[in-house]
Structures are given as C-alpha cells and as structure tokens.
Amino acid sequence: MKFDSNYMITMKDIIREGDPILREATKEVALPLSEEDKEIMNCMLQYIKNSQNPERAKKYQLRPGVGLSANQIGLNKRMFAAYFTDEKGELHEYTLFNPKIISHSVSMIYLPDGEGCLSVDRTVPGFVPRYERIKVKAFNMDNEEVLIKLKGYSAIVAQHEIDHLNGILFYDRINKDNPFSLPENVSIKSVY
Ligand SMILES: [Zn+2]
Asked: Where along the chain is the active site annotated (predicted)?
C-alpha cells in the first residue's frame, strides 16, 4: 500500500484537473474502517499540516492547502481531511468518512478572494456561492457516526471537499456569464 504511515504525500501525488477521477462520484468507504483506510486518512491530514508549515512546505515544495479529498490522490474513496483556522481564529481538524450534508441554511456566503484548489494549478477568478451553515453526517476515525454543525469558513471548506467527493470542482459553481455576480433572491454575503 502506497499511502502507509511512513509515506509523505507531496505535490507529485496530487491529481490535477483534467483527470477523469476528479469527475467521478467516489464510493463509500467500508465500515468498520480498515487499517489501510485509516493510514490513508492520516497521510492526507499530514499533507495538509506539512503544507501549512513554512519550513516543510518550502523543503518539500508543498502548495498550502486546508483540505484534501481521497480522489485528489487518485483513490476512489469517500473521505476527506481538513485542517484550518476559521475566521474567528478557531482551529478545526476533520478526518471524515462517508460525509453527507443532511441539511443546510437558505442563506449563503462566499470568499471575497474566491477559492483555490490543490488540483487546479491556476487562479480562477469569481465568487463561489456556498451555504452559510450545514449539518454533516459522517463517520470518524473511531467508526463513530458524528453529526457536525459548520458555519462560515468551515462550512465553505467542507462544501468544497464534499463537492470533490461528488466529482464537482469549485469553478463549476462560478457564474459563467459574470464570475462576480451572485445568486439573486437569496441572502448572500462575504465571509470576511
Ligand atoms: Zn479542492
């Protein structure tokens, strides 16, 4: 198994746009979790942490990221890792298997600078409308079902990753005619 506990994911492992695996909906992970799937998850989380460490990122040429889905390293598995500080300065860490959005707010938000992606080697300008609040049902590393409420920046990160698991890339959600136009008849504001 490639992504075992001794393996360090680098940019050469990251699947880029154009590869059909990024356009496929991923398959659910079997429960209880195999040791292999847990090790893959730990590798993915470690990439995110390494990429945010300036010395490590420079040494291993890692592009900084806040989330990583399994299909971004070529695995057809419904799982993602995320690690980031939100707009209030709170640290979030998620390692979620078979995540599903079970409900969401009507109100929406967007990042004023748009979104980026480790699988997209270019800047795609435009606003990406996301739900302001979501409830996600998933399984954690201990095979427990968890219900997570997310809002603001953390809701954006989770929606970006769950989109990956459904074969969707962030720019699919940017208005084609005017990338900086926002959906009408819905409350939508910038996160910051
Ligand atoms: Zn992405």
From this structure: 161
Please say whether the beta carbons of 27 and 76 come within 8 A: yes
CATH architecture of 11-190: Alpha-Beta Complex (3.90)
Instruction: Return the structure tokens found at 87.
Output: 């707009």
Q: How far apart are CA 184 and CA 192, in angstroms?
A: 20
Q: Kindly report, residue by residue over 102-135, the tens digit of the pLDDT.
A: 999 999 999 999 999 999 999 999 999 999 999 9
Cα dist from 88 to 29, 108, 161, whole Å: 32, 18, 21
Q: What's the gap in Å between 89 CA and the centre of ligand 1?
A: 22
Contacts for 83 with CB less than 8 Å, ≥ 6 apart: 45, 48, 49, 52, 66, 67, 91, 92, 93, 94
Residue found under tokens 């959600």: 173
Q: How far is the CA of 116 from the centre of ligand 1 (A)?
A: 7
| Location of structure tokens 């201990």 | 142
Report CA(146)–ligand 1 centroid distance (Å). 23
State the virtual CA torsion across 79, 81, 86, 91 in degrees, nearest 10.
130
Is 161 designated active site? yes
Cβ(52)–Cβ(63) under 8 Å?
no
Tell me the residue length of the chain. Answer: 192
- Specify the pTM: 0.97
Binding residues are 117, 160, 164
